[in-house]
Design brief:
The protein is mostly beta strands. The strands form 2 sheets. A 4-stranded antiparallel β-sheet has the order 4-5-6-7, with no helix packed on it. Strand 1 and strand 2 form a beta hairpin. The protein is globular. The protein starts with a strand and ends with a strand.
Length: about 80
């Protein structure tokens, strides 16, 4: 369709790591929290790729995480 979806990885209270969310029409929807060591969560040093709605890759520091359930749960790749 014509709706644009943005995927974001950010720090949020209640998430011990990085919160992964979508933004659609200015509405933020939290998907899942990727666990991480505090030293790996550095603003501007996190990369998120979501090639489709079900699969995502997240790089924090030297650790790569993968999700295959709609970005809800994350495990080390």
């Amino acid at each position: 369709g014509s709706t644009v979806t943005a995927y974001v990885a950010w720090t949020k209270e209640g998430c011990e790591g990085v919160q992964v969310s979508t933004v659609v029409n200015s509405q933020v929807t939290d998907l899942g929290c990727a666990p991480a060591e505090a030293a790996d969560v550095v603003p501007g040093k996190i990369a998120l790729a979501a090639p489709n709605r079900d699969t995502g890759w997240l790089v924090m520091g030297t650790t790569t995480w993968r999700s295959s359930d709609g970005l809800k749960t994350w495990s080390k790749a």
